[in-house]
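Team,

Forwarding the record for the chain on the shared tracking sheet. I've put the sequence and predicted structure together so nobody has to dig through attachments.
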Amino acid sequence: MNQANEGLFNGERAIWLRSGRYEAALLPEIGGNLIAFRDVEAEHRFLHEPTMEEMESFKARPMIHGIPVLFPPNRYEDGKFPWAGKTLQFAVNEPATGNHLHGFLYQTPWQVDDYGSTKTESYVVVSVQVDEQHPSYESFPFNYTIQLRYSLSENGLLQQVTVRNDGQSDMPCLLAFHTSVNAPFVPGGQAQDYRIHMTIGERWELDDRMLPTKEYQPLKEEELQMQGEGVYPFFEAMDNHYTSRSQNGRNRMELTDTKANIKLVYDVGTSYKQWMIWNNNATEGFFCPEPQINLVNAPNVDLPADEIGLLSLAPGEIFEESSRLYVIKG
């Protein structure tokens, strides 16, 4: 049975989806965050969800739970964003590096446009429309609409994202998702039994402010394993930046519980030319495989725009991409 209804998640307004053995929940008021994706029958929780006791800290720092939206994503040197002959100034909200971090929409309330169910799926559609009245417009003065559609079916969780330029000038289109995945996701499972495979390419060298130097670093043996047969996700502390390199036409993360013989696939689409991987200082429990359109600090990096994902949208133009989380057993 497919169902969609409004309810609560740890006291916060949520849209709940149900399809067969799967359920999911989205928090419209907290950044349009898809906060839960579960196999109810097997009691698997694939995303890192906040507990009731963690809700206040989650609302203060929403990046490490669920699937937060980063627009524009990651770090910008001194908060500066050069664009079309001008330099936009973002707030420096990461004092340790002196950078701006993660954009404006991960805490912004999103509007619920629609939710419901059909014979094949349950779904929810949310959006945020930015104009001169939006709080972020002063720093990022563009008119645009971002819409997210999540649907749940026997094929898992499908995410469809659309960015539309509603303004009269070209705008940057830089986007990522700080997706937070449990390891282990099986009840009673051990993180040591988990292996991560990702379609990473080159590793960008980062300076002491976590900004790319334009150079690559040699991949370690464990990173080569990540490209191939897979590696323990917490082999060392990771806050690493990589190019993506599609394999068999797909750009993805696969997380396998080798003991339970269950694989979680996160197929993100080939528009995401970069990956970030963050594993909370190698602390077992969860990590973040983050699909990202652009290189960190891209507007300040003197490399070809196509190479570093410095995308733009002309007036009326639309960017869209799809990603899917699904499970393979046996």
